[in-house]
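Submission sheet (multi-component)
Chains listed below:
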Amino acid sequence: MAEQLLDVEDLKVRFRTEDGIVRAVDGVSFALERGKVLGIVGESGSGKSVTAMTILGLTRGVNASFEGAVKYRGENLLRKSEAELRRFRGNEIAMIFQDPMTSLNPVYRVGAQICEVITTHEDVGKVVARRRAVQLLRQVGIPNPERRVDDYPHQFSGGMRQRAMIAMALANNPDILIADEPTTALDVTIQAQIIELIDKLKDDFNSSVILITHDLGVVAEIADDIAVMYAGRIVEYGSTRDIFYDPQHPYTWGLLGSIPRLDEARPEKLHSISGAPPSLINLPRGCKFRPRCPHAFDKCIEEPGLESRVEDPGHLDRCWLPVDEKRNLRELTIHSGRSEAA
Amino acid sequence: MTTNGKTPLVEAVHLRKYFPIKAGLLQREVARVHAVDDVSIEVFEGETLGLVGESGCGKSTFGRTMVRLLEPTDGDVRFEGQSIAALGARALRPLRREMQMVFQDPYASLNPRKRVGSIIGGPLKIHGIGDAKERRRRVQELLEIVGLSPEHFNRFPHEFSGGQRQRIGVARALALRPKLIVADEPVSALDVSIQAQMINLLEELQDEFSLTYVFIAHDLGVVRHVSDRIAVMYLGKLVELSPAQELYERPIMPYTEALLSAVPIPDPDLSAQRERIVLEGDVPSPIDPPSGCRFHPRCRYASEICSQVEPPLTDYGNGHLAACHHPLNVDAETLARVTAAPETPAAADEAALPKDTSGESRPVPEP
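Outcome: structure written.
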């Protein structure tokens, strides 16, 4: 069995606000093995980014409270102090953010920003750090890195900035790379380059990747496992094949059905999930997807646990519908393109 | 161009829009951004024209110039046959009622200090339509049309979600019963499930009010779903124009081929099987665009002629135009009878019609 790097156990993140308590993450568990890519898919407000940021301790604040555990090689990161966490951040676990325009400091040279990451965690001199920065830029495919290392971020295009961010994240050869919507701000052609790059570098650096996205097309390409999140919890978890070829949760069907696909005939009407995601302050009773679910029935007033209901023990979901019924129902949603919206 | 007896509602004729870059004490013009460079497109009544391309290709500028939110540098825009490129603000006002826009960002395009009622009623007031009571009734009717509740009249934009705000933006565009709506990335800021709601709404409204759409987006899946015809732009140039389905089955311009192959497919097996053309590098600067065919530095079929001669927009029949020296998916027979389309930019060499089919390597994977 491969080495288990990360183990998130029943993670709960709450924020106290003027309007009430926001249950941003409400009982999320998953594990990550070395060399694997886990895709976390969900809409805005589903808790996917908060989960990722909490792993690195980036959501700490006076109004935040945490439960559960985030175990990195057996050590619970939630219990670490800020100073202790700094040893992990950027070194063992690194993160790439969505917007490469705002996550680089505009007044420092790109190279200086990469060097800073290296010298923070390692006792190396300026010359060595700079040489490493050039090498990293070359690895992420920046042409002419010897010259570009002295450029400012505004001299880079969007795609190049995201490459520079990746170079920075990989500077200390981290075990885990968390990519939070790394391609959302980029054009499709550049998105294809970046996804290919992450996939290649994962092997070169022998890292694991947590890829957060709302785009099922992106995870289909490189993820090994997928967690579908809704209202702060995982509603379905399984291998990429499970999620795409045997999806068990009506929300997953809805997501699959609402993408206009190039590989299929154009449907008359796109499937759309009616309504909007619930408020995280005032969550509905029982299954959180119940108010939007066209298949909801009496039992859904009770919240289903995340467990395996199919033949494959690794494929988990939160839905009370009998498996046979689901397999019959879902085609309508995913492929017919008939809208069930109100 | 096959007109099929249809009349263009709006047409751009060799439209150019350059933005000057000024520098120095005297603010002299030192360079120009060639945002839209000699683009001619007709938009027919009742159709949806999709406009795609990477960021910086000029698609938004083109959309805005078409409704005269920007002044064209050169060329003409005709609305129902009438030239509007040179009209003054006063003469333009009645035409403004016919052409409306829906913007990308539902957070930035609604004034946060105004109530929904006055946002949607704004266009009515400006054009002096009805008294306060009638306008209120009309706004409430519009709210219902776009799937909101008439009680939302007195609320502020911040009380709505992204999808609902975009509905408000659509209601505002509909207020004056326009004929043409230019929608600039109307769904790209929305979540997937909400995106589908919005697309369905726009399609319903088109049927109900016989609207004509110019739909600008970078998501090729969304564009195929809504469009009748699709125009592909690259660095300010129109490089391909085709009926929607045909563009996906038989792209002629290598750029379109690459663009299509970059769209992720939400199916792991298909995704793994497919050969993907990864375009190297970024879009060059529109300040100093490459010579000849603007795509040649990134094109895998490029030859010597591509860097020297700008290819004419060639008519391949069935309303499918493309500007390329090495067209894909075209047989020799078709190639023998191609002609330069009247939309060809002035700078292109009309004599340089494509003869070479060496680029006809492989068809795009069939859906």
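Remark: Chain A touches chain B through 50 residues (CB under 8 Å).
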